[in-house]
Design brief:
alpha+beta; Uridine Diphospho-n-acetylenolpyruvylglucosamine Reductase, domain 2; Uridine Diphospho-n-acetylenolpyruvylglucosamine Reductase, domain 3; Enolase-like, domain 1; 3 domains; five-stranded antiparallel sheet; 12 helices; 14 strands; 35% helix; binds flavin-adenine dinucleotide
């Protein structure tokens, strides 16, 4: 389907872009990679009068080392998350999950900012930012807000970014030493959105017990689900096969998935249990190694 006639703006400086959003509040939409916005427009599910193309804003294309975290510009493409050496070394969770997004052509256009604002509960990057307790920098012409990840995803396809605001930067903590990560998902076909996905980030103490565990499940609620009860079970414990079974059961009891034409609620619950066991077994296997994470393994 063709788009309806539309006005197109392409500012080259952030203050101008924020001013455009303020002037046309409600009738304007930010365009980043276009991989979600254009399909929605083609299907007339969103009908902005003006498109604000932010691809000329160089300040949104930077990856900065802030000491304890990386500040990632909203226009960083999914494929850059996979290939950038700083991201691979400091926040490898992003490289790991981005490899599961769509196909190469989509990953070369789609941006981290677009994926987070689009807020699909099955998407990989919202899940990762949620598990990492990232912080989102949201700017308007009048103010700059720092929004914690747990307050950013409001409901299905709805984030905390208002029509006159722009997500400009994503702050992600660097990965702690002795941390193992694992991710897995099930999709109907390769490259499709996941039916269910599970991400585990587990930091071990020197004695081998878990110092801190983070577990996030995608595709089982209208926003990424942090399995806090399961995390509590793991903290200070040894990650044994028995604990993995308990944690997987706890996850499947904590979620309340809704069935749709892609999968029934029971099937999603089943997948969440199986995938939780699978990723935690990967973590165990990794921890038995030399504790230096090898991104090519998972
Ligand atoms: C065939 C196909 C398969 C896909 N498979 C997957 C998949 O498996 N996993 C997955 O996670 N994604 C998948 N995607 C979606 C893809 O990841 C998109 O890139 C992403 O959802 C949106 O990013 P974008 O940069 O293209 O944003 P756009 O499409 O440009 O924008 C999306 C929304 O966010 C808003 N927006 C964008 N950037 C900003 C910003 N900085 N500030 C404020 N608002 C902003 C836009 O106004 C729009 O409402 C798929 C897409 C396609 C077409």
């Amino acid at each position: 389907m063709k788009f309806p006639p539309i006005r197109y703006l392409r500012p080259s400086a952030l203050p101008q872009a924020l001013d455009d959003l303020k002037q046309h509040d409600g009738s304007i939409k930010v365009l980043a990679g276009g991989q979600s916005l254009f399909p929605l427009m083609a299907m007339r599910l969103t009908e902005p009068e003006i498109i604000l193309d932010i691809n000329a804003l160089d300040e949104l294309k930077e990856i900065r080392d802030m000491g304890d975290c990386l500040a990632i510009g909203a226009l960083i493409r999914h494929q850059q998350l996979i290939e950038d050496v700083t991201i691979q070394q400091q926040t490898p969770v992003l490289s790991l999950v981005a490899r599961h997004i769509g196909h190469l052509a989509i990953r070369c256009r789609g941006t981290i900012g677009g994926s987070l604002v689009h807020s699909d509960p099955s998407a990989e990057l919202p899940l990762a930012i949620c598990a990492l307790d990232g912080e989102l920098i949201v700017q308007s012409a009048d103010e700059t807000k720092v929004v914690p990840a747990e307050e950013f995803f409001l409901s299905y396809l709805t984030s905390a970014v208002a029509a006159n605001e722009m997500l400009t930067t994503i702050r992600v903590p660097k990965m702690a030493n002795q941390t193992k990560i694992a991710f897995d998902e099930v999709a109907s076909r390769a490259g499709d959105f996941a039916l269910v996905s599970v991400l585990a980030i587990v930091t071990f103490r020197d004695d081998g017990a878990i110092q801190r565990a983070r577990l996030a499940i995608g595709g089982v609620s209208d926003v990424p689900f942090r399995a806090r009860d399961a995390e509590l079970l793991m903290n200070d414990a040894a990650l044994t096969p028995e604990l993995v079974t308990r944690v997987a059961r706890t996850v499947s009891e904590a979620i309340e998935p809704v069935g749709d034409l892609h999968a029934s609620a029971d099937f999603r619950r089943h997948l969440a249990r199986v995938l939780t066991g699978r990723v935690l077994n990967k973590v165990i296997a990794g921890a038995k190694g030399d504790l230096s994470w090898n991104p090519s393994v998972w």
